[in-house]
Amino acid sequence: SIMNQSRDLSSSPWLISVMLCVLAFALRGQIANDGFWLDEIWSYYLSQLMQGPWDAFSELRIDNNHLLNTLLLYWFGEQANWSLYPLPAVLSGVATVALMGPAARLLAAKPWLAMVLAAISLPLIQYSAEARGYSSAALFGLAAWYIWYARLAHRISPGWLLAFWSSCILGMLSHLTFIFVLAALGLAFLWGCVMDRQAWLTRLREAGTVFGVPL
After folding, report:
1. What is the pLDDT of residues 6-29, one digit of tens each?
2. How far, in Å, CA of 148 to CA of 125, rounded?
3. pLDDT tens digits along 174-189
4. Using N-to-C axis directions, what is the helix angle for 87-106 and 111-120, rounded to 10°?
5. CA 100, CA 21: separation in Å to the nearest integer?
6. What DSSP line would sit under 181-205, residue for residue?
7. Which residues are within 8 A (CB) of 137 and not within 5 positions of it... i.e. 6 or more apart?
8. Of 107, 108, 125, residue with least CA distance to 23
């Protein structure tokens, strides 16, 4: 009976994925309800100084202004239930865990193992429980990596190109350290050009198409 149950679970990857996402949500939600800390309070205070959305880009010239997070805090406004503020980070963290499965499959690794490690990772839990920009930056960084290696590295198509651009732009709006993701993907692309000596001019033109808009 136990062996049959185990076989049923192993043949239901969607069920396992949902269970791990529920676990990830529970862990992140528990920490998110534990109260604001200094940088979150600072981010909230900055958002309350804004007269309009464009102030995040023009007036708040300070490194604690992570643009997407600041805009979300501004649009939420003043809430009696402060646990609403980290909710986008929590959801981004759960989405990151979900995306770990396809990413691991792309590397011929165990999808469920990658999702388990992401679900219980202390840094990922911490970042996903804060009203900051780190959680969404991690999500869009993983999304950009996946789109690149799963699709664009083989063939550039308009739909996936738009998805890649969107991931990169939202990642940089989440946190400027996302530039390291772009740098790593760019170096990987250049290495591909070195290895594919016969078509490097074509590859460089492709690089302009893929990376031009995010840059």
Report:
1. 444 445 678 889 999 999 999 999
2. 26
3. 999 999 999 999 888 8
4. 150
5. 11
6. HHHHHHHHHHHHHHH-GGGHHHHHH
7. 171, 174, 175, 177, 178
8. 125
